[in-house]
Amino acid sequence: MELLVAAKSALLQALVEGPGYGLELIDRVKDRTSGDVRLGQGSVYPALRSLEVEGLVRSYEGPPLPERGGRPRVYYELTGEGLRAAREQRRAAAGLFMLTPREA
Amino acid sequence: MSRKRGLSRGARAQLKAERRARRRQAAEMRDQAWRAANRWPEEISKFLIVRSDQSATETSARTTQLTLAFVDEHWIASAITPAVEQRAGRSARAQRRAAGVFELLDAVVPRRLRVEEIGDALEYVNAPGRTALQIYLKAIATTFWVLLNAFREIRSSVGKRAQE
């Protein structure tokens, strides 16, 4: 069964580990949830752009890569505000699902 | 209801972890077998590592066994090589076609989508081990989402301008 998790929440939590680009973030979420949460191509990029507009993440381009046809990767990282939002979200989710701090 | 659905979340996670550990162990065994075989370069052509999947009834999990089978080296060349080459050829053709589709998309979408979404899709299709079907599906999905996201971006920028 696929879990119902908003793409923006999943991406915020994935970015707590460090910067990443679209494909990598999709894999990161999949790995962290043992495949229970799979983000689709259609939801990831609009969610990342929306998070950037909200000021929770910032993006930067890496060097051009041949396997991308000379295009650079677009990396995302959390801003200070984004990190705060991710922590608050984690606390709220832990309360919602009645987890002990250790489980969260 | 399937047996998997009846399990609790913790039990499912444990099953998954066990399955991953078994796969890792099988991969290590395979590597060891290859390393051992490579010590005897003359014999390597006469042996083929055969992988077979079996179901263990007590856990319903699949286990992998490795067997060294004696085979005729000419049979390997005549039977396996063309099949592998054919598959690689199909994937390479699919990669070229996908790249062609992405080139067309490049011309009509904003730079951000070109660099990010089409770049990620190209990276996906150019990764080793992708089958032709995976590549075609990715090309179709990318075309759909890139065009939709381009439309959304254009619409939102027009909306912003109208508000100003």
Compile the SSE list and pairings.
The complex is a heterodimer of chains A (104) and B (164).
Chain A: H1 7-16, E1 20-21, H2 22-32, H3 41-53, E2 57-65, E3 71-78, H4 80-96
Helix pairs in contact in A: 1-2, 1-3, 1-4
Chain B: H1 3-6, H2 9-38, H3 41-44, E1 47-56, E2 61-70, H4 73-106, H5 111-126, H6 132-163
Antiparallel strand pairs in B: 1-2
Notes on the structure:
The complex is a heterodimer of chains A (104) and B (164). A 3-stranded antiparallel β-sheet of chain A has the order 1-3-2. Chain A has helices at residues 7-16, 22-32, 41-53, 80-96, and strands at 20-21, 57-65, 71-78. Chain A is built from 4 helices and 3 strands. Chain A is of the alpha+beta class. Chain B has helices spanning 3-6, 9-38, 41-44, 73-106, 111-126, 132-163; strands at 47-56, 61-70. Residues 40-46 and 54-63 of chain B have low confidence and may be disordered. Helices cover 73% and strands 12% of the residues of chain B. Chain B has a two-stranded antiparallel sheet. Chain B has 6 helices and 2 strands; from the N terminus they run H-H-H-E-E-H-H-H. Chain B has 164 residues and is α+β, with helices and mostly antiparallel strands. Chain B starts with a helix and ends with a helix. The chains are: A alpha+beta (104), B alpha+beta (164). Chain A binds chain B through residues 1, 21-23, 34-35, 41-42, 45-46, 49, 61, 65, 67-69, 71-74, and chain B through 5, 13, 16-17, 99, 102, 112-124, 126-127, 141-142, 144-145, 148-149, 152.
